[in-house]
Fold this sequence. Notes:
Number of helices of chain A: 0
Strand content of chain B: over 45%
Distance between the termini of chain A: 37 Å
Number of strands of chain A: 11
Number of strands of chain B: 11
Oligomer: heterodimer
Radius of gyration of chain B: 13 Å
Mean pLDDT of chain B: 94
Mean pLDDT of chain A: 91
Order of helices and strands of chain A: EEEEEEEEEEE
Largest sheet of chain A: 7 strands, mixed
Shape of chain B: globular
Structural class of chain B: mainly beta
Structural class of chain A: mainly beta
Number of helices of chain B: 0
Strand content of chain A: over 45%
Largest sheet of chain B: 6 strands, mixed
Helix content of chain A: under 10%
Order of helices and strands of chain B: EEEEEEEEEEE
Amino acid sequence: EAGVAQSPRYKIIEKRQSVAFWCNPISGHATLYWYQQILGQGPKLLIQFQNNGVVDDSQLPKDRFSAERLKGVDSTLKIQPAKLEDSAVYLCASSLIGAGYGASYMNTEAFFGQGTRLTVV
Amino acid sequence: KQEVTQIPAALSVPEGENLVLNCSFTDSAIYNLQWFRQDPGKGLTSLLLIQSSQREQTSGRLNASLDKSSGRSTLYIAASQPGDSATYLCASCSGTYKYIFGTGTRLKVLA
């Protein structure tokens, strides 16, 4: 079974430029998460989708960050314009929740991609 | 609002030692608690998932326990090896099935 795919793996941009990250979740997974992990900290949830609807985006800086999940499969996260403090690893994760199996505990297991390391200079 | 804390923040031990990593959470209404490993520059690898109805899970040299009433989980690593050196993260799944992470424990096992 293929895991969660993310691209690119690394990105270096200048402040005020724009950048986009792509995520392909595990096939059949209805829930998709984007996390931001700043060096030395735990991941922080930015946005959670179930199918193509937003469940939680309360910590997404909406003045500069946007995300979409077209057709309930792939997702893109965009930053425009980037700031120095956006330097972090952006992690995508997926789980079965909402895929018609019911909310059993095992279906909530989250699987993470390798992440995209963003450096803003 | 769920908050997750991990203690200690960093740990350095000689090879062969048994060790315990601690995770505490403020809201006991969780669906599960998941332990992850993160190597430098890498993503998260799931180690163990404990359902809220369970008390512990085991995989090889790893054993994770869960006490919902006290808001605590521990990850026990037996006979530690240099290859175990990594950051260990715990995350609770609650509410709208979102995962809230602790800040992690950086483990270094010395040969």
